[in-house]
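Notes taken during the Thursday session

The instructor put the following on the board and asked us to keep it in front of us for the whole hour. The protein is CRAL-TRIO domain-containing protein. We were told not to look anything up and to reason only from what is written here. First, the residues (266 in total):
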Amino acid sequence: WSLSRMLGFWASDKKEEPSLASALPYFSLEVLGIIHGFFEKNDDVPLFTHDKRKEMATKYPMVHLGTLERFLIARDYSVSKASQMFDGYLEFKKVVNTPGFSEKAKKTLGEGRRNIVTPMGRAKDGTDVFGFRMCLITEEMLNNADSVADAAAWTMEKYLQRTGPYRNPRVTVLAPTNAIDNAPNIPAHRLIPILRALSKKLGANYPEFAQRIVIFPFPWVGRVLWEMVKLFLDPKTSAKVCFLGGSQERHCDPDETMYIPLTHAN
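Then, after some discussion, the predicted structure tokens were revealed:
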């Protein structure tokens, strides 16, 4: 058997013409170039068939193609815009990896059970679920929305490191606004600055991460305000935010038929 048959090129049913890059998106161009060198002449398998992907990979030869693809999709395959976005992410990544940032982020998000960002397990659609407990947002957090957004982005960076390069990172965020005892319980419509900062920061640095961001229950006045705010945000990110109505006064445990508990997740 030739190397191309082992990789499955003989049976590809993708609309796009198969290439080594499309078959192995979890490797960098640097690695793929070595693999491509082992192909036989009669294999006739191209390294790339997509010019934009080739251009982006050539610019960042040590970055996994799957990572670069997320930024290309976010910018409609404009290499210049995707590169600008990716360069911004690299700069932000330097910030979150500076000494002391982890401790600062943990303190910003809340300690222990007061942490507003909580991993919840795996959804039945395969996405990883994060809970964003809006009832725990304090006035201090509200007045420092950008710092909260940076800390939440740090959480996503840690998630990305745990996920690794061989699995596509995809998350569903559940954000209940119900009140709980001994919590700040700031009214939902006042939390717009936090939502705006989060959408801007996460959308700029972690494109194509979010499957859906569900905020519930959310009053109609807050939804009206959000319609105005989202005009100033990345449209692809803001389009993934949806609101559910409802009048439940207190918090209750989520229905476990809707997700796979963390202890049972792979």
